[in-house]
Amino acid sequence: MTTTPHTTTTAPGAAVAAAPSRRARIAGLVLSGLVVVFFLFDSLTHIANVEQVRTAMAELGFDPSLNRVFGVVLLICLTLYVLPVTSILGAVLLTGYLGGAVATNLVTEQPILSTTLAPIYFGFLVWGGLYLRDLRVRAIMPLVRG
Fold this sequence. Notes:
7 helices; mainly alpha
């Protein structure tokens, strides 16, 4: 495999993906860091089963005894996302978790832009951060043609 400053090739003329620039990697780390901080806080409040979380989960129709389960599942997905070797798997699992949040918000008729679509916004941050910092993601999701 040969490399040029921004393109990796496996055969003559077959570009696989542009390697992330230093600025893109930093931007990806910042986006991913924001995702991690938010989800870490969210998972820990579920695990701690704080009153506000118990109330919110009950209002959404969930048995508050499931709070710790939600928190642990989110923490496992987040851990996989943070580890470079499993970051893509973590992003896929976080996407599924966020899809459940969208479905819950739709069923409970939450406001569309501010609440129902909020998990989709976080999904963009999850994948955007990973895309900016990880060559493997750029290879499977080539958003820019070379």
